[in-house]
Amino acid sequence: MSQIACGKLKAISNHPNDFAFLGDVTLGSRLDGKLALVREKREGASDRAPEYAVLYCAIGQRSMRVMGNAWLKNSDKVNGGDFMSMTLDDPDWNSALNLTAFPPDKNGGDWRIIWSRPRGARVQDEQVAA
Q1: Are strands 19-27 and 31-39 parallel, antiparallel or unpaired?
Q2: Which residues form the domain of 66?
Q3: What is the rounded radius of gyration, in angstroms, for the C-alpha atoms of the chain?
Q4: How many Cα neighbours within 13 Å face the side chain of 21?
Q5: In this structure, are residues 86 and 72 in contact, taking their beta carbons and an 8 Å threshold?
Q6: 124 lies in some domain
Q7: Any domain includes 24
Q8: Three-state secondary structure along the chain?
């Protein structure tokens, strides 16, 4: 499975807009701008409800808009166990984007955002090698 690093998120505390994470993301023609994750109200929500709403602001635009959701997950295979699974979508896209954010290592730093191309998936314009 192909993985491409496409951004970073910084954990924010006490931000006036309730942003939990802020960062930059760049992924070809689909994403090039700022991401913000805002904690969702989970009172009475199921365990499957997302922990965060994902907001996006493209470079050159002035306002953020909701583009998807993020779920906090846990895996023994990941450093520290926790990671975030994000799904972003836009009516102009053929399909949703699935991103994963991995926590900083033990020395601190930012969360790393990775896009993984599903097995067998190809870019529409990509030609099959003969």
Answers
A1: antiparallel
A2: 2-117
A3: 16
A4: 32
A5: no
A6: no
A7: yes
A8: CEEEEEEEEEECCCCCCCEEEEEEEEECCCEEEEEEEEECCCCCCCCCCCCEEEEEEECCCCCCEEEEEEEEEECCCCCCCEEEEEEECCCCCCCCEEEEEECCECCECCEEEEEEECCCCCCCCCCCCC
Q: Does a structural domain hold residue 94?
A: yes
Per-residue tokens: 45 = 């929500």
Distance between CA atoms of residues 9 and 55, nearest Å: 13
In whole angstroms, give the CA distance from residue 36 to residue 25: 10
**CA 9, CA 59: separation in Å to the nearest integer?**
16
pLDDT mean for each 10 residues of the chain (130 residues)? 85 76 92 92 75 94 94 72 89 90 87 81 45
pTM: 0.80
Task: Give how many domains the chain has, as a whole number.
Answer: 1
